[in-house]
Amino acid sequence: xxxxxxxxxxxxxxxxxxxxxxxxxxxxxxxxxxxxxxxxxxxxxxxxxxxxxxxxxxxxxxxxxxxxxxxxxxxxxxxxxxxxxxxxxxxxxxxxxxxxxxxxxxxxxxxxxxxxxxxxxxxxxxxxxxxxxxxxxxxxxxxxxxxxxxxxxxxxxxxxxxxxxxxxxxxxxxxxxxxxxxxxxxxxxxxxxxxxxxxxxxxxxxxxxxxxxxxxxxxxxxxxxxxxxxxxxxxxxxxxxxxxxxxxxxxxxxxxxxxxxxxxxxxxxxxxxxxxxxxxxxxxxxxxxxxxxxxxxxxxxxxxxxxxxxxxxxxxxxxxxxxxxxxxxxxxxxxxxxxxxxxxxxxxxxxxxxxxxxxxxxxxxxxxxxxxxxxxxxxxxxxxxxxxxxxxxxxxxxxxxxxxxxxxxxxxxxxxxxxxxxxxxxxxxxxxxxxxxxxxxxxxxxxxxxxxxxxxxxxxxxxxx
Length: 465
Fold this sequence. Notes:
Blueprint: H1 2-29, H2 35-53, H3 55-68, E1 71-74, E2 86-89, H4 90-108, H5 121-140, H6 146-157, H7 159-169, H8 173-197, H9 215-235, H10 239-258, H11 262-278, H12 282-299, H13 302-313, E3 322-323, E4 326-327, H14 330-345, H15 365-398, H16 402-421, H17 431-445, H18 447-464
C-alpha cells in the first residue's frame, strides 16, 4: 500500500518539479540566447514533455523525422576514414530527446520496465560489446582518437533505442496498423519530393541531404519500404487495400529508379525472389520477375540504362580493374580495391580489428565490420543477422493473420534485399535506413506476444460464456 502511494506521489511530483526547473532555467538563460536558439530549446522541451506523457505521439514524430530531418555537419573528423565531419540530422536530436523522455517515463512508471526481453537482446548486446571493445583497444593502441571512435559507436547504435521503445510500447494490432500507415505516408511524401528532383537531371536523393546527396542511402530506404508495401499487397484480400499498397509501390519505384544506385538495383531482385519463396502467389511473382527481366532493358529510363552500362563501358583509365576481359568503372573498381585492402589489412589486427574509425573509409558493410572490429565483431554481427532471419521466418510461418503475414513477409524480403545492398554500401550503420528497419523489426517481433495475449483474452471470454 505504502509503495503504491509513494509511486503515485512520485508520478505527480516529478513532472511538477521538472516544469519548475525548466521554467527557471529558461528565465535565466533566455536573455543571453538568440531567438533561433530559444525556439530550438523550447521545441526540445516541448518534445521531451510530449515523449514523457505519450510515447505513441513521440514515435509518430520520430517516424516523420527519419527521412524529413535535415543534416548537420559537426566539425571535421581527424581520421581519414570519413573524409568529412560527423554527420548529424534533426532526427538524431529528436531521438536523443525522445530517448531521455522515455527513460524518464520508465524510471517513474517502474511497472512498465526498461528493456523488454526479446530474442534479439543477447545478439544486440554481443555486437555492441564487440564494437566497444574493438574501439577501446584501438584507442589505447593509438590507432584512433578514442572520443571520435566512441561517438561513432553511439551513432551506429542509436537506432536500437527505437527498437526497445517500440517493443515496450506496442500492445495491440491497432497500434501496428497506425505505425505502418505513418511509415507508408512518410514514404509517399519523400517519394513525391524525389520525383520532383527528376527534372533537374541529378541523381535523386532523400530530402534535406545537404550539399552532397546520398542516392545510395535513399535507394536502400525505398527498397525496404517497397518490400513492406509488396508484402502487405500480396497478403491482403481486399481490393481497396491492394490498390493503396500498389499505388505506394508504384510511387516509390519511380524515384528508386532515378537514384541510379547500382547497389539498390542489385538488391531488388533478391528481394523479389524472397516473395517468390514465401508468398502463396509465387506463380504470379515468378511471371512478374520474368516480365521485369525482359521489359526493364527496353522500358527503363535512359539515365538508368546509362548508369548500368557505365559500369562496363567507361573510357579506359589506369585506376580501373579488369576481370576476365571485363573492365569495370572507377567507382566499382574503388570498391573492389577497398575490399581487397581491408581483407589484407585485417591480418594486422585479426581479433579486434582497428576499432571504429580506426581504418580508412570502406564503402561496403562486410569488409568494414571485419577490418574495424575483427573476427569477434564480424562473428557477432553475423550472429545478429542470423537471429533476425531465424525469428522473422519463425514468426511468418507461425501466423495466419493477414496483416501480420504481410508485414513479416515484407520485412523478410526487405531484410534480404538490404543484405545484398550492403555489398556496396554501409547499409547497417546508415541511420536513414536502419531507423525504419529496426522500427519495423520491433513490430514484427512483437507479433507472437500480441497473438498470445489475444488468445488469452478469447479463452477468458469463452470460459465466462
